Amino acid sequence: MSSTSIFRLATRAVRPSGVFRASQLPRSRVQVPAALAVNRASNFSTTCKRLSGAHDDETFEEFSARFEKEFDAVQDVFELQRNLNNCFAYDLVPSVEVLSAALRAARRVNDFPTAVRVFEGIKAKVETPDQYKLYLEKLDGLRKELGVALREELYPNEE
């Protein structure tokens, strides 16, 4: 038997003749290889696991210092927005120092919309309009220095 006829026999056994149907494929071709299926969830992990109770006993001062440090280390828009989401996710209003660090980080990465959103986040987190006005008074100098407008200034006819 010549080598070409052996090759033809081998290819006929692998490839079904006629119309292709998935049920005709050998079972080993349909299943996922075991090496790929073992750690499928960990293949797509981009962050390390954190324990849920890492910041349970954190005081407000420690919270403020931690987020000031994180905003000072921001290098791109994604980090800035992630830190803002984390900061505003807590059941408290961030301190003026944390917010000023966030505004300076927004200026550093040249992200005007996020700087405006910081003030919207403050407005959503405070309990009364008077508290919002106090935050605006404390951050007024920095806001004017950085050229950040409020949403109320940008869209006066809304709300």
Automatic annotation (TrEMBL):
Listed GO biological process terms: mitochondrial electron transport, cytochrome c to oxygen
Highest taxon of source: Eukaryota
Keywords recorded for this protein, A-Z: Heme, Iron, Membrane, Metal-binding, Mitochondrion, Mitochondrion inner membrane, Transit peptide
Q: Which SUPFAM superfamilies is this protein grouped with?
A: Cytochrome c oxidase subunit E (SSF48479)
GO CC annotations, alphabetized: mitochondrial inner membrane; respiratory chain complex IV
Topology in the lipid bilayer is annotated as:
Peripheral membrane protein
Query: Which GO molecular-function terms appear in the entry?
Result: metal ion binding
Record flagged with keyword Heme: yes
Q: Where found, per UniProt?
A: Mitochondrion inner membrane
Subcellular location, principal: mitochondrion
Pathway membership, UniProt: Energy metabolism; oxidative phosphorylation
Q: Does the entry feature the keyword Iron, yes or no?
A: yes
- Recorded family membership: Belongs to the cytochrome c oxidase subunit 5A family.
Q: What does this protein do?
A: Component of the cytochrome c oxidase, the last enzyme in the mitochondrial electron transport chain which drives oxidative phosphorylation. The respiratory chain contains 3 multisubunit complexes succinate dehydrogenase (complex II, CII), ubiquinol-cytochrome c oxidoreductase (cytochrome b-c1 complex, complex III, CIII) and cytochrome c oxidase (complex IV, CIV), that cooperate to transfer electrons derived from NADH and succinate to molecular oxygen, creating an electrochemical gradient over the inner membrane that drives transmembrane transport and the ATP synthase.
| PANTHER family for the chain | CYTOCHROME C OXIDASE POLYPEPTIDE (PTHR14200), CYTOCHROME C OXIDASE SUBUNIT 5A, MITOCHONDRIAL (PTHR14200:SF11)
Protein name per UniProt: Cytochrome c oxidase subunit 6, mitochondrial
Q: Which organism is it from?
A: Monascus purpureus (Red mold)
